[in-house]
Amino acid sequence: MTTRIRHFRKLRRLTQSDLAERLGTTAATVSRLETADITVSVAWLRRFADAFGVQVSDLIDEREAQMRIPCMGEIGRAGTLSSTPTSGESTVMLDAPARDPIAFRIRENVGIYCAGDLLIADRMAPEHVAMALGRDCFVEIEGEASGFGRFISSDNGCYLLVPPEPGALVRSLPTPDWVAPVVMLIRYF
Question: If we measure between CA atoms, which residue out of 49, 148, 62, 58 comes closest to residue 106?
Fold first, then answer.
């Protein structure tokens, strides 16, 4: 059975060792499970789902029939092209890599984002906010204005939201109702 364990591990910016530590196993076992060298049991799928904050069904690759676009290579420094992708991915799938996807369009140039960009984010419940730390996120707090920026923790147990443009006011936040780290940027030309 093909799983999306590797996909979610990379999405959460975890190494195999990081994930193994969370699961109480070895990096070799994680490697074997994500490459299907050994059979992935339902018990293992539950452990991975808990570690990623997703549903077990999200880990089962049901998207094989979706349209895939061939990846012809990679662009390097000075515009050099390699005809074979070094990442091992020979196709690109244009589905949102998120359990609970939401989207926002950028209205005007803001930091690294350009007017018209479409940001796809993965909305997470408050108990999973630690997985969003250090990432650009949309944040919702009941009774306060929602916000967007780099989501980080502070020394006093609160969170900080650092807007993408230089000089903007950093907001101190309590635990949000939900946080949605950006998982995909679509830029139209």
Answer: 148
